Amino acid sequence: MAIQVYNTLTRKKEEYKPINPHMTGFYVCGPTVYDYFHIGNARPFIVFDVVRRYLIYRGYNVRYVMNLTDVDDKIINRANERGVSSAEISQKYIAAFFEDIQKLGVRPADAYTKATDHITDMITLIERLVENDMAYESGGDVFFNVRNFEDYAKLSGKKLDELQVGSRIAVDERKKSPIDFVLWKAAKPGEPFWESPWGNGRPGWHLECSAMSMKYLGESFDFHAGGLDLIFPHHENEIAQSEGATGKPFVRYWLHNGFLDIKGDKMSKSTGNFFTARDILEKYPATAIRLFFLQKHYRSPIDFSDEVLQSAVTSNERLRLSYQKIVEAAGDVEAISISESDLTEEEKRFYSMLDGVHSEILTAMDDDFNSPLALGKMFDLFRETNRFIDNGLQTAQSRQLVDLARQRIDEYDSVFGVIDRSKAQVGQDKINEVVSTMVELRNAFRKERNFAVADKIRDALADAGLVIEDTPQGAKWRWGA
Predict the structure, then answer these.
(1) What CATH number should be reported for the domain whose range is 4-283?
(2) Which of 10, 142, 192, 321 is the most exposed place for a label (fewest CB within 10 A)?
(3) Top-level class of domain 315-416
(4) SS3 label, residue 183
């Protein structure tokens, strides 16, 4: 099955067909570096990291680019508040950004593009737009002429006649139309500036992403991703600038993640309704945070609370302990060729299950990167593998099958990054010993027909992520994934 992608531009799922068979171009809108990024900003960094990993897993050669907006009104305002330079603010929070995404397990981009390193590219892009009658200079500023671009608002579906001057569009008599947006801002006292054909100034935010994405990925590329709030005006304006300059389709597939909400309201710095990713990382493991995000489809809204994050922590710990059990059961097994004809019926069932889960995970991820469904299938793999181990590994083939399960889990986690491998692998024998003692106590209470206490022990173990199974040979326990 080919990968199906929901394209915001066409509002439907489409088969992924690379523009260039040798390179998949992927651009993600990165942070404006005036503060620590909040946990809602972490969602696109994580979910599109997983999309990129999955494309690589499926054999695509991905070039992944993310911008760093290091010149912007917010940065200038923060610098003025603190009595320092804009460069000092941006350098501090760029360093913090790299620290935090590394802790979140986000793989480095192939290129991080700083706006201030690409001013010449931005000026060149504006010059092309002026030549194409898509832009004009007025009072030292340069504006994009929206009405000269026929396809404006094709991403958002908005209608030009319905766009009103409001909170997102500043009233400016120098504009030919209120909906025209700025490409180049004339310098103001105390602000950073660069020389240009229109005088000293600095680029507009929308222009930065157009210039940098095309420089690193070409004038037409495969994927452009970001949050829903970027569809209009940011991504809409990127399309207008890029296609207005080149006359070519800018991006084939537009991906947008849903909002992270707190009690139904969008997490936002402007309203003060946010937690920084740095603060959350001090309370919760990065693998649990990744699991929290990936247990919802990337296009769906997700509600943030300590309760749901704590639930992800519990699930994450079960995965860690279950994975450790699988690794220990496989041991240093020799690599042998598995012949189905030599397998027992139980081994054949397990072998078949491995192939079935593999197919189901690929099917889920091929369907617009459905990580919740894929993770559910991976949890099934954990449960079945633990059950297989608990039934006894009598042959070398059995241990080889468990090691094959481990290899598959490692493959899938190379995409999701949700198994915590950072904790020291010590103390497991003691944990097993304590659990076994509790199971023996439960058995003793059952024999005494004290079912109330026996059930209380069972429930306590269940809350800790353990499953008790009563068999004719006695009670057995395993970690539930």
Answers:
(1) 3.40.50.620
(2) 10
(3) mainly alpha
(4) strand
